[in-house]
């Protein structure tokens, strides 16, 4: 009996020691929850859409009822800039008292994505604002705290402290297809929450000159000023995108609106809440889309790579042996067919961790290992 008790005690001691070692060195082995769930608790749709699976679909009425409570109005204000001339007696003598300038007011929308009070919106909605007030669909108001912004995707994360918040369910924007029905929900022109319907007109829109990183969902659902930061939802009421911009000659909707996919917004939110900022990779090259003539000269199909026209001296790409005239076809196993895709693929690389680039040269194909640096947060100041 004594021997059995000694064996049991030794086994328990060994197990506790192993648990302590694992908990200290590899705590992630003991916690299999998704990273985002531990950072931002969200509601996530795990089932395929009803349209894709051929099942029962919700009507527009149900989608609006499900999603609308989580879409908020955002009012911003900025203190006026006072001119030092207003305090100059000679200026007042000749030009009179100019009075106090009025505060600048702004209007936009946002989407509550977490019971913890996190709100997704556009950076341009709250940029440079001194005060931000969030107005819920049920009439409650609360000042918002800016958790972080990402100007390169035009996204911002706010937080409010209120109980019993309505939360939207995050959908799978990667499963969207052209022709899918969607609703745009926001506060256009400040008239109050408005729901418009349309379809997905196009996917993966880039090179619009709106953001540094572009991968827009295009829709013909009416989006107007004040809708920025609002929700683009599917017929199940799940969030598919953050409404961001319109193409217009008059300032109103012309049937061409753009939304940032939920997949992008979610990754930006995770990075900002976890790290306080979005960290992106950078290798120091000047890329250019591959023309059919250049593609023919390299012996590859048109649209299957990006040609490098310049390499920053002593940058990560230069140190790895990338040189002008190289055609990059893959980044870390991800095919790139244009400059926008190369920019996105390089930005997704963790700084300091080596990645493989597939390169086509006139002398043949090579694989190059590049260790990316950290991308400059000021857009347009450095090559990709």
Can you describe what's shown?
By secondary structure, the protein is an alpha+beta fold. It is 23% helix and 32% strand. A 7-stranded antiparallel beta sheet has the order 6-5-2-3-4-8-7. It has a 6-stranded antiparallel barrel with strand order 10-11-12-15-14-13. Strands 17, 18, 19, 20, 21 and 22 form a 6-stranded antiparallel beta sheet that branches. A hairpin with a 2-residue loop joins strand 19 and strand 20. It is globular. It starts with a helix and ends in a 10-residue tail after the last strand.
Task: Describe this protein with a few key phrases.
Pdz3 Domain; 7-stranded antiparallel sheet; alpha+beta; 23 strands; 384 residues; 6-stranded antiparallel barrel; 23% helix; Thrombin, subunit H; 10 helices
